[in-house]
Design brief:
By secondary structure, the protein is mainly α. The protein is 71% helix and 0% strand. It has ten helices and no strands.
């Protein structure tokens, strides 16, 4: 069962396996090991950046393509959720709409970048992606009516995952059972699923093609 979940790609050393297990357990029980709002926020950011780095490893580590526009798509996803929640209110429909819009914009933009940048080689490809990322950063800063400019956007989450929502009056092991905790574990599950999906991709025939591109 474990081999299937890991796509038959087990860690190559026991030391690495132990470290990965400790990391997984630490993140799974982070709200109870390090109670507090700040510690939970840091752990949530760690989960987000794990997915970001794992996806960049697919691009650079396995395919060998250097792209400076990778975080641009990360920002598009964040802006999609934030703008949708700001305009439509704190509902699940707004989050799904923002997610769908962000995926659509990322798909179209990546297709456009690919049509131009993949015609060049070596450092020229990296420079094109850097130019696109810089242009997007400037655009996000200038369109302050939509993006909030340099100040960003402040929005509310659905009530179920908001800090004010409480599942129980009494804390459990010193941790409040509220929407913030539920939001963290939803993020934890999403991060684990996405990392396992990326692991499956690199061990699929498509993943072998990506490694062949690098070679």
């Amino acid at each position: 069962m474990l081999n299937r979940l890991l796509s038959n790609d087990l860690p190559r050393s026991r030391v690495l396996a132990v470290l990965l297990v400790l990391l997984l357990v630490g993140l799974a029980f982070a709200p109870f090991i390090f109670p507090g709002v700040k510690a939970l926020s840091v752990a949530a950011k760690v989960l987000v950046f794990i997915v970001l780095v794992a996806s960049f490893d697919l691009l650079l580590g396995y395919t060998g393509i250097v792209s400076f526009a990778h975080t641009m798509f990360f920002g598009i996803g964040a802006y999609g959720i934030a703008i949708s929640a700001t305009r439509l209110g704190p509902g699940w429909g707004a989050l799904l709409l923002g997610l769908g819009a962000a995926l659509a914009v990322s798909l179209l933009l990546s297709l456009a970048i690919g049509l131009f940048s993949l015609r060049v080689r070596a450092i020229f490809f990296a420079m094109i992606t850097l130019a696109v990322a810089s242009a997007f950063q400037t655009l996000a800063s200038q369109l302050s009516d939509f993006t909030g400019g340099e100040d960003g956007l402040t929005f509310k989450l659905p009530e179920l995952i908001s800090p004010s929502f409480e599942f129980a009056q009494e804390p459990f092991l010193g941790v409040s059972l509220d929407g913030r905790l539920l939001c963290y574990y939803l993020l934890f599950v999403a991060a684990v699923v996405l990392v396992l999906a990326l692991l499956r991709i690199v061990n699929s025939p498509f993943g072998r093609v990506l490694q062949a591109i690098r070679e």
